[in-house]
């Protein structure tokens, strides 16, 4: 089976690495890819925003499955164009991708289907949003409705912060994404990420993870796309997974089918867990990055069998099995990330880093001749497994320390909650 993988991040490198292990694979093509993905795939210079060009490429190269990594092409309707052309695709339609593309859409679905989540209201102007925030009081959460690359959410601990965030959204800080604002109840508890593969009818639980969104050690500093992650998430017990399927995922699948937008692809639920159980913070319609990296390391089964089953509506007939090991990934980012990452700094020592069994996934890298260089914000994902999170963490940082990259940095405490929990046992 020939496969086209769309994307260029660490998430897609991890998918390429795992897809390359499939006995079903013919040729793997990738667009736009990166130097890590190029080890397993033929890189093609396709403009993925040009849907006709993608369809033509798939026909020319006999692609039997397209795997779409990031959210932007999904929200832009690439999966719809492929489906219309009769090409199997892993990823939701544009309409179903609204679960990530519009926070207001998701909140309204939660209200209709009685899915546990924070109380909220949607606004299209600042005065009304501010009046509601004042009436509710802090802490309170302000969200730009649309896609804002993970930066559209302000967890405001004071009313002043909330009012400033509302002002900022309506003044255009997030462009069109901020033309509508959701003001939401502050939820407390422990966060976890829960993944399902979906085929429009069936949702198959596909692992748990915890990520670290803040830039600095101790979960401080600005939000980022994610500075590291580990799997499984210890807070997600089998009972909580059942409760999440029953109260959140299954009603979502029913609700999406009911509006004529059955969901297929990865449903990634960001959850807040407290003593009453899980509440939905947000949905993403793709694998997390870097959560995908740790999931791929732990997945025992042939990922292509599972992705194909999801694309073809056959998920009821497959299952996913996981290693008992924990996996942990440390994101190495370019100095200046997230505001102004410095590009072009040389990186070496990746072979040494992988000598202890760790796997280094590339995100924003580029080859300049033979020299690997930084080419973006999040650059490398140093990923390792171990009997528990403590061991996986030690192995990942041993690998980090073998990498020679003066222009990069990472957090030194990825996995701290799980490590603390394990120390108590
Ligand atoms: P999001 O971009 O929706 O993932 O939000 C980014 C982060 O903001 C989440 O991972 C949470 O840590 C936090 N967050 C979002 N919504 C809430 C909420 N209602 N209560 C508390 N924290 C939240
Ligand atoms: N790591 C968070 C995300 O992929 O949204």
Please provide a written account of the structure.
This protein is an alpha+beta fold. 32% of the residues lie in helices and 29% in strands. The chain is built from 14 helices and 23 strands. It has helices at 10-19, 51-60, 71-75, 78-84, 98-101, 103-113, 126-136, 159-170, 238-258, 291-298, 303-311, 350-354, 389-402, 416-424, and strands at 2-7, 28-32, 42-43, 63-68, 89-90, 120-123, 140-144, 153-156, 181-185, 190-199, 203-211, 214-216, 220-223, 228-231, 264-274, 277-284, 326-334, 346-347, 359-362, 365-368, 371-374, 378-386, 408-409. Strands 10, 11, 14, 15, 16, 17, 19, 22 and 23 form a nine-stranded antiparallel beta sheet that branches. A hairpin with a 2-residue loop joins strand 15 (264-274) and strand 16. It is globular. The chain starts with a strand and ends with a helix. Adenosine monophosphate (AMP) binds at residues 118, 141, 150, 153, 155, 184-187, 191, 213, 223, 270, 281-282.
């Amino acid at each position: 089976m020939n496969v086209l993988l769309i994307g260029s991040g660490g998430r897609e490198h991890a998918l390429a690495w795992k897809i390359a292990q499939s006995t079903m694979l013919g040729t793997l093509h990738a667009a736009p890819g990166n130097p890590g993905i190029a080890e397993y795939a033929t890189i093609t210079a396709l403009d993925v925003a040009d849907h006709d060009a993608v369809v033509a490429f798939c026909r020319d190269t006999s692609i039997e499955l397209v795997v779409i990594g990031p959210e932007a092409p999904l929200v832009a309707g690439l999966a719809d164009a492929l489906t219309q052309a009769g090409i199997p695709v892993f990823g939701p339609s544009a309409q179903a991708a609204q679960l990530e593309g519009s926070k207001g859409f998701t909140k309204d679905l939660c209200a209709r289907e009685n899915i546990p989540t924070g109380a909220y209201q949607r606004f299209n102007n600042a005065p009304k949003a501010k009046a509601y925030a004042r009436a509710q009081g802090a802490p309170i959460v302000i969200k730009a409705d649309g896609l804002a690359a993970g930066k559209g959410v302000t967890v405001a601990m004071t009313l002043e912060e909330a009012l400033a965030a509302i002002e900022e959204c309506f003044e255009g800080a997030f462009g069109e994404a901020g033309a509508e604002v959701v003001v939401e109840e502050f939820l407390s508890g422990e966060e976890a990420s829960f993944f399902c593969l979906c085929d429009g009818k069936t949702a198959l639980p596909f692992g748990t993870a915890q990520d670290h969104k803040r830039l600095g050690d101790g979960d401080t500093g600005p939000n980022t796309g994610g500075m590291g992650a580990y799997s499984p998430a210890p807070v997600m017990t089998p009972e909580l997974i059942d409760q999440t399927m029953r109260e959140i995922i299954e009603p979502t699948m029913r609700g999406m089918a009911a509006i004529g937008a059955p969901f297929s692809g990865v449903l990634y639920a960001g959850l807040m867990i407290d003593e009453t159980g899980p509440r939905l913070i947000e949905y993403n319609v793709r694998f997390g990055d870097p959560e995908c990296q740790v999931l791929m390391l732990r997945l025992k089964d042939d990922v292509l069998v599972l992705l194909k089953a999801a694309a073809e509506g056959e998920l009821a007939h497959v299952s996913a099995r996981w290693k008992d090991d924990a996996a942990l990934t440390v994101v190495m980012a370019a100095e200046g990330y997230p505001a102004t990452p410095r590009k072009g700094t040389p990186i070496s020592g990746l072979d040494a880093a992988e000598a202890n069994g760790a796997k280094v996934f590339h995100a924003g890298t580029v080859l300049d001749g033979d020299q690997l260089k930084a080419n973006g914000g999040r650059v490398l994902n140093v990923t390792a497994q171990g009997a528990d999170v403590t061991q996986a963490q030690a192995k990942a940082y041993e690998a980090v320390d073998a990498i020679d990259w003066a222009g990069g940095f990472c957090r030194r405490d990825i996995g701290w909650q799980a490590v603390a929990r394990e120390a108590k046992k």
